[in-house]
Design brief:
The structure is a homodimer.
Chain A: H1 38-49, H2 57-67, H3 75-96, H4 119-125, H5 145-151, H6 161-172
Helix pairs in contact in A: 2-3
The structure holds a DNA duplex.
Chain lengths: ~200, ~200
DNA sequence: GCAAATTAATGATTTATTCAAG
DNA sequence: CTTGAATAAATCATTAATTTGC
C-alpha cells in the first residue's frame, strides 16, 4: 500500500522555472513539493484573513494564476494550502480552548426536582419524564437487552481492546472517574453495562 | 455562545430558590443548564456517529440513565442535544458552502487507484449551461468583476504597478526578498488582472 | 563556518464523516 | 438503504530550521 509516490514529479511544471524556484538551498526546480514564496504566502494569508476558506474552482484558478507571477505554482497547491491552513488554524484554536475542564460540580447542586419540560419536549415526550436524577450509580431497571443493543449498535462504544480491559478494571470500582488525563476514552461499555442480571 | 435556549430555567427556579437571580445576562449559564462532561459528549457523539439521529423516548431514557453515571443529566438534555447537534451539523454544512462564496464545486479530487494520472486532484468543468431562470431575482453572483472583488475583498489589493516592475528584476536575480524588510505588501493587484474576456 | 543529525513546519495523501439524491 | 459529493480529520512525507560536533 505504501507505494512510494509514483513519479508524478515528472509533471513538475517545467514551464516556469529556469531554475528560479524557491529559496536558498539553490537546489533548483526539484520535482518535489511546492515551496511557496513569501509573497505567495502573504497573499494566501490575506485571502484567508479576508474570510476565504474553501475557494471554488474558479477562485483557485484565479488565485493560482495570480500567484504564478511570484513563482512556480499550480492550482492544486492553492487548493491544498487552504485545506491545510484552515485545518491547522482550527486545530490551533482547539488546542487553546482545551482548558475548559471545570464542568459539572458547580451546578450539581440541588436541582434535582423535575423541571416541567419545555413545551416542545413535553409535547412529544410528556409521557415520561426524567427519573434519572439519582446519582447513586446503579439504578437501572433491567429491561430488555435487545434494546440496548439497538441503542448502541456499533462501535459507539469506541472502545478498543485496551479500553475493554480498562472496563474490566473499572467493573468493581464504584466510580470510574479515574479517567486518564484528558478525555482519553470514557470507560464505558454500554453494550452490557445496563443489566447486572 | 448565543444559544437561544428558551428560558426554561425559570420554571426550575420555582423550586430552587438559591438566589435564582438567573444571571442577568440572559445567557442563563448560572441558572443551571446542563453542562455535559467530556465523557457524556463522547458517548453522545459516538451515538450520533453510529447513526442515531432522533432517539425514541425509550432510547433517550436509557441514554440519559447511562450518562447520569458521568454527571448530572436529564433526559431532556439528551433530547435537545440530538436535536441541536443534528441541526447544527446541517447548518454547518450549509454555512460552509455559502460563507465561502462557494457556488459550484467543479473541483473534485480524483483519488484512489482508478485514475491513471497521479494521485492528485483534477479539475472538472461541469460547464453548467447558464440557466438564468432566476425566479427570485437575485440568485447569486453576477460573476465577472464582482467575483474578483469577492475574492480579494480587503487589503490584499493594496499594490501599485511599481511592484510589478520589481518582479521583472526578480526574474533574473535569485530572489527579490530584499525589498521591504518583511513583506509589507505583495505586489499584486488582483482586482482587474483577471478577466480578459 | 560547515554539514550531518535532529527537530519543527507544512505540503500532499489517505481515510472517515456528513448531508442529500435516487 | 445505498451511493455521490464534498469536505475535514488524520496521516504521511519532504522541506526548512535548528542543533551539534568538528
Amino acid at each position: 500500500m505504501e507505494e512510494g509516490m509514483s513519479g508524478f514529479c515528472i509533471k513538475a511544471s517545467s514551464v516556469r522555472g529556469t531554475g528560479t524556484t524557491s529559496t536558498t538551498s539553490g537546489t533548483g526546480t526539484k520535482c518535489g513539493r511546492w515551496n511557496p514564496t513569501s509573497e505567495q504566502v502573504k497573499v494566501l494569508t490575506d485571502l484567508f484573513k479576508s474570510g476565504l476558506r474553501t475557494p471554488s474552482t474558479d477562485q483557485i484558478q484565479k488565485i493560482s494564476t495570480q500567484l504564478s507571477f511570484y513563482g512556480k505554482i499550480e492550482s492544486k497547491n492553492v487548493f491544498y494550502w487552504f485545506q491545510n491552513h484552515k485545518a491547522r488554524e482550527r486545530q490551533k484554536r482547539r488546542k487553546v480552548s482545551i482548558d475548559d475542564h471545570d464542568h459539572h460540580k458547580d451546578f450539581v447542586i440541588l436541582r434535582e426536582e423535575r423541571i416541567s419540560s419545555p413545551k416542545r419536549y413535553a409535547e412529544i415526550y410528556h409521557h415520561h419524564d426524567d427519573h434519572n436524577d439519582h446519582d447513586d450509580g446503579q439504578v437501572l431497571e433491567p429491561e430488555r437487552v435487545i434494546e440496548t443493543l439497538q441503542l448502541f449498535p456499533l462501535n459507539s462504544v469506541g472502545v478498543s481492546e485496551s479500553e475493554k480491559l480498562r472496563y474490566e478494571c473499572k467493573d468493581t470500582s464504584a466510580f470510574p472517574y479515574t479517567f486518564e488525563t484528558e478525555m482519553n476514552h470514557p470507560p464505558l461499555d454500554l453494550r452490557l453495562s445496563f443489566f447486572t442480571s
